[in-house]
Batch of 2 targets.
Target 1
Amino acid sequence: MGQLSDRRVLAGLAGLTAVGLLIGGAFAGLISQAVTEWSGAVSALDPYLFRITRFTLWQALLSTLLSVAPAILIARALARHPDFPGRSIILRLFALPLALPAIVAALGILALLGRAGIFADLLGWLNGGQWQGIYGLSGILVAHVFFNLPLATRLLLHALETVPGDQWRLAAQLGMGPATSFRLIEWPVLRAALPGVAGLIFMLCITSFTIVLTLGGGPRATTLEVAIYQALRFDFDPARAVTLTIIQIALTVMVVTLLIRLGTDMVGDPNLPVSRRRPSIASRRETIFNFALILSALLFVAAPFVAIIVSGLQADLSRLASDPALHRATLTSLLLAIISAGLSILLSLSLTVARSALELKRRGQGHPSILERLLDTGAGFVLVVPPVVVGAGWFILLLHSGNVFVMAPIMVITVNAVMAMPFAIRAIRPAWDGASKRHEKLCASLGITGFNRLRLIDWPSIRRPALTAFAFAMALSLGDLGVIALFGSDAVKTLPYLLFERMGSYRTADAAGIALFLGIVCLALMMLADRTRRNA
Amino acid sequence: MPRPVLAALTLAAALVALPAAAQEKLTIYTYESFTSEWGPGPAVKKNFEDVCACEVDFVAVADGVALLNRLRLEGARTSADIVLGLDTNLTHEAKETGLFAPHGISLEKVNIPGGWSDDVFVPFDYGYFAIIQDTEAFSTPYKSLKALVNGYPEQRLVIQDPRTSTPGLGLLLWVKAVYGDDAAEAWERLSSRILTVTPGWSEAYSLFTSGEASMVLSYTTSPAYHEIAEGSTRYKAMAFEEGHYLQVEVAAATIKGAENPLTAQFLEFMTGPGFQNAIPETNWMFPAGETSKPLNPAFDHAVKPGTKLSFSADEVAANRDAWVKEWLEIMSR
């Protein structure tokens, strides 16, 4: 037993070290540069910083609340209606916003709610005057909810799906109404998952950049991330960038710690489920309510996509489809996405496994050790280290050690893998914790340990969430390239890169076509993941 | 190691190992849109390789600012012979690094409004900032910056953030050049007309062409793109009486590159038709040297500024922080 859990913990330690190295290395690189000119660290602390910090926190908290609260109801509705027509398509659609470059999503939303949007006349009439678009805090919030409501819904739905069928059967036998079954069955699971999900979304919103500037209407709405970007990219002041990044991390740690206090630790069900996974039948009134809820969420998420599709169709798609640059970019994107998603799952799994081993060891009693906490939420904080910081830091480190060009694709892969970890962990952890708790005693008594146990006992129960996590990680990896701003980017021309290249050379129609294509590729990936999942 | 990882590493290694020919080589650091298939890079590479019997190796980073930062970090050990794509707002800082060498070539073919003399930087193109109007949104152009500042509140403008974007900084300097100490007041008036401030040019221009705003900050040459590539005259640059702010893009030899005879040959070549012919319709800027054929007539339609506005690189370097701060104060209210 001791050896077994040691090995699991070791795996977690290795994963944690890898993440630590990536972030630590970046900081080491920047600090080595900063010591020559450290005055920026002091000059960073001015009243302006206080103002933007306040705004950063405010918009992130509001965005999180507006994304997570409705997501609870939507996830529950989806969980209670496994036969909802088109449910699997809705779930796939809900993974797409993650893969969209922020400006594409912003344009999609503006096509509806902007000054020249479809609803501009209606909104202007309601508003009494010409509609000026949703620029300002409302625009930021709408865009953040568009990105994060579907994410929260999917993650919470995953948590709900870990409720064993037995409990639902019991609930049905006892004649529990929707309110009682929510309180006794669903809420405990949701409450355990909520801090993690909310924390994740909070982190995504705190680091928001293009959305905040573009839809925020100007520097009134500025986040710390913008200041960090400016410090590194425009002023090249590593000292200031490091200081601002540390403030950003400290703020996030504070908020996420608070969130964790609000939640409870999950108590996994130690029994093997014997019934089919099937929640109790909802009443007619509840069904109508749930259907309305799902449909409005669908409308909210799908409408900007329809706008993206419409503008994409105006592009010269047949020319684009035969464009070798697009083919190369698609291949590069897929290759990078698959490798980094694989790496991400590996790292996330190692952390999850180690954390649950540590928790089992203390039998859920006492306080979790620092290591356990690090394995739990610690790795999540990588999300608030801006990619441009990681990229610049590593660039400085690698500069003195040979060829930086080879490193560009490797940087993209590792940074994307690590950035996707918080998502992957959220998807894998609920299932893993339940399964490993159920199997722990049995495995100990049968003497099944190590890889055999993973392959034969634990893997089957986490295969589905692991594939979901894989799909998420892939979608995410199709995105950001800020990390290689300095590296020389010819080796990693991905689809979003191509999109920006076209956008930057007046070819807006091409860019719209590529955005459509990016959506299709992502949807195909989701379907592939779903198919593998079903066959698994 | 999983096979896909191995495959990717092999691929990456192969990509790096490929240009290991025994030829003479010239390494040029530049920005991404220069080397993209739509940019001047491919034509420039071919034309120079035809005359030099050498190999041109482009290394592209995100933009002009990243270019300078990259060079700063690499210091004297850089592999760049030439850095191409800084603009005049960066040359002061670039010179201060001490990493650039005098070009030593004749600048007789260089053609920049107001003339050019610099012993380190050689210009390769230039452009004027301009406010582009969507003539379908309103037909009467503003005749001056002051008229724009005091214009109709319904007509909205998209600009770029001077903290993250070169055109954004350009507008800041433009307003400063026209208004001087009253710039703050002008921004205050203008701010209610600004729909939004984007991090970069691409986002702003996309918002503009999608119809969100009726005006955008760009270049006098922007309408030429729409005329040549799309046959459309919907978007027009407005000519301002006070004049337009000039942006000059330059290249320079590094101290390492000064030892490579190809460096001077390229800088010389850069001022002639082999390079300059490619500029107008790929970089959508004006050529800064000799071309062998007349420009597409669409460029003749571009606004010809009466007065050329510009601050010296030293003035910009000395005041940029304070001016950006002033702008930020007003715009954050």
Note: Confidence is low (pLDDT under 50) at residues 14-22 of chain B.
Target 2
Amino acid sequence: MKEYKTITSVKGPLIFLERVKNIGYGEFVKITLSDGSIKRGQVLETSENKVVVQIFEGTRNIDKNAYVKFYGDVLKFPVSYDMLGRVFSGSGDPLDGGPKVVPEARLDINGLPINPYKRSPPQEFIQTGVSAIDGMNSLIRGQKLPIFSGSGLPHNELALQIARQATVLDCTESFVVIFVAMGITEEEAKYFISDFEKTGALERGIVFLNLASDPSIERIIVPRIALTTAEFFAFNYNMHVLVIMTDMTNYCEALREIGSAREEVPGRRGYPGYMYTDLASIYERAGKIEGKNGSVTQVPILTMPGDDITHPIPDLSGYITEGQIIVSRDLQRKGIYPPIDVLPSLSRLMSKGIGKGKTREDHKSVSDQLYAAYAEGKDLRGIVSIVGKESLSKSDKLFLDFADDFEKNYIAQKSNENREIQTTLDIGWRILSKLPEEKLLRVSDELIEKYIGSFRDAQNKAY
Amino acid sequence: MTSGVINLGSKGTVYRVSGPVVVATNVDAKINELVRVGNKGLFGEVIEIDHDKTIIQVYEDTSLLKPGDEVITTGMPLSVELGPGLLGSIYDGVQRPLPKLSEQMGEFIKRGAEVPGIDREKKWEFFPLKKKGNRINLGESIGYVNENEHTKHFIMSPPNIQGEIIDIVEQGKYTAEDILCRLDNGTVIKMYQRWPVKVPRPFKDKMIPNAPLVTGKRIMDVLFPLAKGGTAAIPGPFGSGKTVIQQQLAKWSDTKVVVYIGCGERGNEMIDVLTEFPKLVDPVTGSPLMDRTVLIANTSNMPVAAREASIYTGITIAEYYRDMGYDVALMADSTSRWAEAMREISSRLEEMPGEEGYPAYLSSRLSSFYERAGIVVTLGGKIGSVTIIGAVSPPGGDFSEPVVQNTLRITKTFWALDSNLSQKRHFPSINWLESYSLYYDSLKEWFESKISIDWDRTRTEAMKILQKEAELQEIVQLVGADALPSDQQFILDVARMLREIFLQQDSYHEVDEFHSLKRQFSLLNAIIRFSRLGNNAIKSGIEIDKLLKLESRAELSKVRYRKDFERKIGLINETMSKEFKALLGE
């Protein structure tokens, strides 16, 4: 351990020291201020005589007289099984008035990359009880599936619903839910925690809170602390961990803040050029490992600035995550909850986790067919707005009605409604049965016979 | 690169550490030389020399590296080991075998591991092709081993070694380190050789590509074919199916060897390839696909400098198999991640940024990579090819960004992915209006002589219909389809058939995922035949509704899934003739 009192400058979240010797890159640092309070930080750059340190708690009150202690090791976070059911701050201190956690292990918060060879392929379907996800963009254990949303949209409600309802079929183990808040308001945080307490989810959950009023640099470490905890539960206790992180946009803002304080050459829209690599070091910590029973599944939430999916934050995230669930303002305006726009949404691992023996044999076909038909219906809406409904052919009109039907009866559900996957698939068939059979190119005749037959008969009787 | 005789050279000292970039003093090294940094011996490459300072990019995580740490030179550039055992392997970006790494240190990748790319213990049965007294030229084979059931792995003299054989071993089992052959000038040939990754392996002559790389995908093979030895770019926004297409190409391309580089991609996707390829059967040889595949996996959370190296590692391995006289396909997924790695390192070096923060040398690096493709006469006198298929992930799907634009300037086949199509579950989501292939003209003859003399005519007609559809769609948007005259309505219908029956292909369906060129042609031909007959019928005053109800039309829509495709398509053609005869006879 080395201690210095050689701060030369303080700039934004960074401090600069001179006359230091052999400080390691990434070393953990504690700063003791003149009033006795302590702040923590990490070395961002080191050279013979100059060191740059980022301070997690922000640099307020730091002056040139502060003592800076270098620990000779990276930041390690104490983890324990007893963390279950607790609420912590963004740097891991208890916020719920409970005692400090007695650590079982101290782990490097940056983790280590999983050897791709030792990953085991994610293939267990997670039933979230939300049709738009289960039926159309299934979540799979070990996947990282973000929710791309916009400000003012009900992504938090949706995240809570997933946290409450997520189960794996034919499996008694339940999820440990780790909830990570980055720069959200106190009100939102209260909403989450009270819902967790009300539904009993907190008993099998851990909460890390970095509020909007907390130092922004802390946001750099919260997700890493949380994922270190998640990996500990997944790979030491063989538990299934669902990590919900909101809001990744605030994380990226913090990253940009550091970049600009260091006077780095900015990349797109001022975000640092290494943002892709940095985000990957968070998202890639989802997965399963061969020979271990546990898993880490991530549902990060990010609000797209200006609802723009080409903005660097959603864009770079989309290239790393295994799909995305898109929350749409249009559907929200129509009063549909959850307002998930399934067309641009995607789950890359879906096909691995569905089908015979996993969900149901018809799952893939019926979701492909719903996609195709809904896409056609939505195209027709565009045409109708120009030429009017009258000029449409009979079959086009059916597709137009289908799109409405799909939104009202398949996508829409109550925020406490937990739909079984079978129900979801049956609803799909029911609304497909109103389309002419020869237009259903994505489903085989056998499936049509098996699943639509009953609806056709019922309809015929009705007439 | 990692083992064998390393001449530990001079020692220098770390001066500054910033992420993957390390500045050292007193290092006596050349540009691109490999060095070991710190007490863990992390691998790094010298990328810049500035007065007394040497700038090194480190291929591993640099946490806790500090000023004052040692830097040791190795005297050689970053190289790969080339020899039997490459096929079926999975490496990280600097050719460390991932299975061996996991044996050494478990599920996670720790630092400073040293594992040779080629197994030193394994014995291979060597069959000599030369005798004592024979002269060996540069790159000539002295013998071979059977790397697997279907691949003869030729043991070649390295491209810088030649001479007269004074001693060569007999047939028998040898390890990679055993000396197989001594030459009169004192050099020896072992089963493996090293080659610096950034130097293209030499060849005698480059030829003009003249045969298609058959992919089994109708839109690629028929509309926008790629030549063996050619280059292709697949740009598309996320979610448009790039990775699925790359994996499908790796599965179905009719090449002897496939090098698949997962460059900065997802770990879960790599494991997908890893678990699926050993199970999949090569349609040509009947053995597991993994037997012809070399995988290079540098996932997005692995060190960024190794990501930059992975592309070079891959292409060098590809060139090595080319030199044996094989056709090799190289898939790079994704070159954007590679370019971003360059950008990241460049920005750490505080270089003056070019467009969008990319370094000014982006364009020259990209072109020198793609230029390593080609069909060549090798030094050993054989003909081999390397085909490069690079995925590009443009931010926001914007094709005007620098990586796409610089790639398009070099590559000759362009498969433009379109997220509108993928949202409609139209796969492969290649946009038929934007894509192109500059190889088609030189391949036309091949198709006409090998598949059908009508190939070009049929293809041109299909393209015309698709283009006409795009024009008509604009009118339909304004006035509705019913307002069109019936011959134009019929064009829209045929275009729809082309899109839904021919262009779409299901990658998860056992029959549909691969169609031979013959099948592709007969399917297209049947649709075009329907179009011709239909046009005649409409000219003779038959109502369009009647055409839409024909049985042959309905049957065509599902024939691509049939195992007995050939029989069925014959029947459909017969039905079609009968139905149209009946219509006109009315």
Note: The mean pLDDT of chain B is 91.
